[in-house]
Write a structure and sequence with these properties.
With 364 residues, the chain is α/β, with parallel strands linked by helices. Helices cover 47% and strands 15% of the residues. It has two domains: 1-105, Spore Coat Polysaccharide Biosynthesis Protein SpsA, Chain A (Alpha-Beta Complex); 107-176 and 189-357, no CATH class. It has helices at 2-7, 23-35, 54-66, 84-94, 111-122, 138-142, 152-161, 182-187, 201-212, 221-224, 239-252, 268-296, 303-311, 313-323, 346-360, and strands at residues 11-17, 43-51, 70-77, 99-102, 107-108, 128-130, 133-136, 168-172, 178-181, 227-228, 237-238, 257-259.
């Protein structure tokens, strides 16, 4: 335990909290996170959005009572939808340690995973680590996944060895769980607080950071900006395909979290915010791309590799596995394309499907 505390002595964990959706569930999971001891030795900052509403002020007053082990900062929000990007950024500004980890209350993880992520970051492979997540189905909660019978990575290795794919939606290879040096975070500009609610605020920052640090380079900005969403990495397009290339190796290191099931927003405003967020995403990435081009002239990606990745994605992914001595068939979970069971009735599922189809036209 003392060794873990030493490893985490340079770590600040930023957890954004808002009460727009399921406030009771968020408070419950925050309490579980704080009392789990997962980040013992680290600086834990809870960044709380407070709108000009009585219920927000009331709910936020409960957070300091959960534990004295975390610092609480309050971020005033004037809109109905809060900015998760602003919460993360303000949390980073309040941090005092060398490393930042952006984390959410709906995740479970192990100290060993965080230690591996820190070692990966310090291995000079990338200036940041994007931590993948296994998204679980509702039945996973009743199967005791929330309790975490031992280190989460070991639990899930056992579950996956038994092919319990019925507990899983899919693996999200790129998420908002990001480990980065505090210095690099502020040099890169950090999260853009102009984003509203959830949606693309994390991917915009990751893509902007990748361009700045030349983790990958672009030859066709319009192709890159396509928001080709898909559950399986075989079917993604645009920037999501690029992100697969840098996160599959992290997954193969055994660095991942588990995302616990929760009901998703069912409000029209949520999807309207996604459209606005895509516009911000597109403008920011184009600006960063043009700035890099002006600085360095040519700004080319490994175009031959990307072309082959588009034509035969499975073959290219298999090359990544082989280069690390890992068999592709032992990671079939990466290619799950399961339908979601987030909504309770057929009518709800139909309405959400229509909204998503309309939303997809924004980036087509």
């Amino acid at each position: 335990m003392e060794a873990v505390r030493q490893t985490f002595r340079d770590l600040t964990v930023v957890v954004p909290i808002g009460f727009v959706y399921r406030p009771a569930g968020i408070l419950r999971r925050l309490r579980q996170l704080v009392h789990s001891g997962l980040f013992d030795g680290a600086e834990l900052i809870v960044s709380v959005a407070v709108r000009n509403r009585y219920d927000d002020r009331l709910l936020s007053s409960f957070i300091p009572r959960i534990s004295k082990a975390c610092r609480v900062i309050y971020v005033q929000e004037s809109e109905a939808e809060i900015s998760i990007a602003r919460l993360r950024h303000e949390g980073a500004r309040a941090a005092s340690r060398e490393l930042l980890l952006f984390y959410d209350v709906d995740l479970i993880c192990s100290q060993s995973v965080v230690e591996k992520a820190i070692a990966y970051l310090k291995g000079d492979r990338n200036p940041f680590v994007i931590i993948p997540s296994i998204y679980t189905r509702k039945k996973a909660l009743s199967a005791g996944i929330a309790a975490g019978d031992g280190p989460v990575d070991q639990v899930w290795k056992g579950i996956l060895a038994k092919r319990r794919y019925d507990l899983v939606y899919h693996v999200a290879l790129y998420t908002s769980t990001i480990l980065i040096e505090r210095r690099v975070y502020f040099q890169s500009g950090g999260f853009d607080p102009n984003f509203s609610s959830h949606g693309l605020e994390d991917l915009e920052y990751i893509c902007r950071l990748c361009i700045q640090e030349r983790v990958f380079e672009l030859s066709d900005i319009d192709e890159f900006l396509k928001d080709g969403r898909a559950v399986s990495p075989l079917f993604t397009e645009g920037f999501r395909k690029y992100l697969n290339l840098i996160t599959i190796p992290i997954w193969l290191e055994g660095i991942f979290t588990v995302h616990l099931w929760h009901a998703r927003p069912k409000r029209m405003r949520y999807f309207k915010e996604r459209k606005r967020n895509y516009r911000i995403f597109s403008e920011n990435i184009k600006r960063e791309y043009n700035r890099k081009c002006a600085e360095n002239g040519e700004y080319q990606f490994q175009s031959s590799f990307l072309k082959s990745y588009y034509e035969a994605p499975l073959a290219e992914i298999e090359k990544i596995f082989k280069s690390r001595g890992v068999r592709l068939e032992s990671h079939g979970i990466l290619f799950l394309d399961n339908p979601a069971d987030l909504y309770r009735t057929r009518i709800e599922r139909f309405i959400i499907d229509v909204l998503r189809r309309l939303d997809k036209k924004v980036s087509d």
